[in-house]
Amino acid sequence: MGIRVVLVDDHAVVREGYRRLIEKHAGIEVVAEANDAASGYEAFKKFNPDVLVVDISMPGRGGIDLIRQIRQLDSSARVLVFTMHASATYAQQAFRAGARGYVTKSSSPEVLVSAIRDVFMGRPALCAEINQALAASRLYDDVSATDQLSPREFEVLRMILDAKSTDEIASAFNLSPKTVANYHSEIKSKLGVRSDIELVYLCMRQGLVAALPEPGIG
To answer: Can you give the C-alpha Rg of the chain in angstroms?
Structure first.
């Protein structure tokens, strides 16, 4: 029996492309697809896949909170992150949430397929890009301020950086606006910043958000 995979990515064209790529390899079958964290969670419960392949940045709750939620449901769940984010901080948060592997979308197709097989076999799977980022982080003892955040706090931060309102974040996580405001305050406290402007610039330095465009550009 082959490896049963569920793909979670908010771009239908991306899912279709990777479904075809994955299924060209013998012994791997994509049994379901999902376009956000909520449908990914339901697909996991319904199909009980051998490996869940999940993106990080999606509308509403992101992949890191989905990983946390799924590992609470099933502590043996095998989750592989497949994302554009080539940051050591994102990778560390994903593993803290319970991921077993992390591959960037700039990797070759063979790397993704190999990672699916490794995660299925219980082996950790990292692409070369993330291996280098994590090695550099350890080499320079580069402890990110955001490493203090829990996976849930990190996902709230990601949505704040994506300019989502308190009500939008509350709706995505099924929380009250007051609880989200408390998360917001706690995040700033942990990161040692007093305002959202300071928060954005700290995250720019951490590589979590792109630099702001120069005036007149874009």
So the answer is: 17
